[in-house]
Amino acid sequence: MEYQDLGLAGLVNLEDWQKIQDLFSEVLEITLRTVSVRGEPLTTTSRLSRMCSEILPGIPRSNELCGYCILTNEKKLPDIDIKKKNNFKCTFGLDIFTVPIVAVGNRTAAFIILGPVILKSRKTESEYAKDAGDLGIRLDILTDALIEINVFSYNKIHNIIKMVKNIFSYMAETGYHKKRLGEIAPKVLEMDPVFSRYYEEKILGSLLNASSRALNADSGSVMTLDKHTNILHIKAASNLAANIIKKTNVKMGESIAGLAAKTANPIILPKDADKNNLSSKMKRSDIKSSMIVPFNKWNTHDVYGVINLNIVRRNRAFSENDIQIVKELVKMASIALLPLYQERAL
């Protein structure tokens, strides 16, 4: 596969991409949509506001990015170079950002349209009244629509853009590796079976990195199950000591990770501490919250491993939404590893 063929639609399942986009939009409370490098919409808009669906489309050419509002328009973006400009000023003092999604190297596979948002603070009522009068809109209709648009600090929006770019680029890169692996796996595995283990660890490391960034976790690991011994071993880790990584061997049903693997049910601590006597298994008092999510191989029911994430620096607990995000990221990783699973089954 040549680099010029890195269109997002050819790398990932857009239905899965849409689900993750919807989740991130809900968690971040921000509008998101994905478009191709040529400006064609690839997804429907997540968390579409009245401002975008009702107000802005009625204002001809409200800004050069929207045209007649790219968030609701099924046609190509206006003839502008979104590759060279990442911030567009919208009507009523709103801002829209374009986030490049990179599949491999510096090659852009798509853009995520992020916003509109309000930066720093809202305008005064008199300023909005002037805007409404100039454009022939009732002030109460305008202010009701603006309530749905969230206010972000410059630092917050910078962090959101960085996270969106990292997570969605990870998914695009995972799709690229799946395609490349599907082309070369049979020959390489025949020559060197070690390749499958190397590639597996690479994908699991990327999965851990993406999950940690998405949920702002301080440390974590991915463990996989050795079916011959029924023991979980760490395959990827973040901010864990080397001796812990080397010595950690967890039997199915033992410790918190082993129990999550045996029951195939996620665990959030301290919320689930009273279940199955888990409080007695919590050994690190410095951890404010932990999340352990078991996962399967692609289209199988057998537990393949668990992903563990920890929060240490601040008082925040993982949520059910966080579990769903990790599950969707795991799904993307398992799809990338599918060629390896197929080869092992031969």
What would you say this structure looks like, in words?
By secondary structure, the chain is an alpha+beta fold. It has two domains: 3-166; 192-345, GAF domain (Beta-Lactamase), CATH 3.30.450.40. Helices cover 41% and strands 21% of the residues. It contains ten helices and eleven strands. It has helices spanning 14-28, 50-55, 125-135, 139-147, 154-191, 194-215, 242-247, 255-263, 320-336, 338-345, and strands at residues 32-35, 87-89, 95-104, 107-119, 151-152, 219-226, 231-238, 249-251, 267-269, 289-296, 303-311. The strands form two sheets. A six-stranded antiparallel beta sheet has the order 8-7-6-11-10-9, with helices on both faces. α1 runs antiparallel to α9 (320-336) and α5 (154-191) runs parallel beside α9 (320-336). The radius of gyration is 23 Å and the shape is elongated. The model is unreliable at 187-192 and 339-346 (pLDDT under 50).
Secondary structure topology:
Elements (H helix, E strand, L loop, with lengths): L13 H15 L3 E4 L14 H6 L31 E3 L5 E10 L2 E13 L5 H11 L3 H9 L3 E2 L1 H38 L2 H22 L3 E8 L4 E8 L3 H6 L1 E3 L3 H9 L3 E3 L19 E8 L6 E9 L8 H17 L1 H8 L1
Parallel strand pairs: 4-5
Antiparallel strand pairs: 1-4, 2-3, 3-4, 6-7, 6-11, 7-8, 9-10, 10-11
Helix pairs in contact: 1-9, 5-6, 5-9, 5-10, 6-9
